[in-house]
Amino acid sequence: MTTSAPGSAPVYPHAPLSFRVPAVIAVLAVVIALVISGLVGHIAFGLWFALGAALIFGNAFLVRGTVSAITAEENPRKKPLVFNTAVRLGIITVFALVIAFFFRPEGLGVMFGLAVCQVILVLATVLPVMKGLRNQS
User: Fold this and answer.
1) pLDDT digit string (tens) for 103-127?
2) Residue whose C-alpha is closest to residue 106's, from 37, 32, 52, 28
3) Are the C-beta atoms of residues 59 and 88 closer than 8 Å to each other?
4) Three-class DSSP category at 34
5) Taking a C-beta distance cutoff of 8 angstroms, is the pair 132, 13 a contact?
6) Looking at CB atoms within 10 Å, which of 55, 82, 111, 118 has the fewest?
7) Which stretches are transmembrane (predicted)?
8) pTM reported for the whole predicted model
């Protein structure tokens, strides 16, 4: 990481805020999951996978809105963001676990959808930032 001047604040590369590329990749993952689950006779797994993907992107949109609202305040505080995030992730996790339990084995698709699409979102954010950091050095 480089800085603009000694003692100044670090300069970080811009993190992408668009969900376009990760959404396209996630849709492809959902289509692949639906095709494979349909071929093996468990189409419900693919449908639950799609629900998991939708939950992750819904959470990402809510996170972006929450962060925007909190950072727009004159004195932003971490506590409301942490609480909001913990409650939201708790609700999503409980919802996914209930589906996985009551609709097993196909219900596990929701957990796989959550996991795969979370990895897609994280990589879509981290890789451009890492590339920017590498270019700064």
Assistant:
1) 999 999 999 999 999 999 999 888 8
2) 37
3) yes
4) helix
5) yes
6) 82
7) 21-41, 47-69, 81-103, 109-130
8) 0.80
Cα-Cα-Cα-Cα torsion 12, 18, 24, 30, nearest 10 degrees, comes to 90
Say if residues 109 and 36 touch (Cβ distance below 8 Å).
Answer: no
Amino acid identity for residue 26 in this structure: A
CA 112, CA 96: separation in Å to the nearest integer? Answer: 10
Per residue in 72-99, is it b (16+ CB within 10 Å) or e — as a string? eeeeeeeeebeebeeeeeeebeeebeeb
Specify the 3-state DSSP secondary structure of 3: strand
> Residues 33-54: pLDDT tens digits?
999 999 999 999 999 999 999 9
Q: Is 14 helix (H, G, I), strand (E, B) or coil?
A: coil
Q: What SS3 state is found at 137?
A: coil
